[in-house]
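Tokens in:
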């Protein structure tokens, strides 16, 4: 049930068995794979840039609001 909710939110991809609808595979739930699921295939450099950007921008916003 939790995996189906995460799949609906676009945080993981599921592979279902066609006859029963049972989940046979799911992408792992690391932040890197969430980015790949949401943003599509990208090279390692692009993935690192996105990851660093998501860590630095909130810190900048927090520090600038003080």
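Residues out:
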């Amino acid at each position: 049930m939790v995996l189906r909710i995460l799949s609906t939110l676009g945080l993981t991809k599921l592979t279902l068995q066609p006859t029963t609808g049972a989940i046979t595979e799911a992408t792992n739930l690391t932040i890197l794979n969430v980015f790949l699921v949401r943003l599509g295939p990208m090279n390692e450099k692009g993935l690192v840039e996105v990851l660093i950007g998501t860590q630095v921008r909130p810190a900048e916003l927090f520090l600038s609001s003080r």
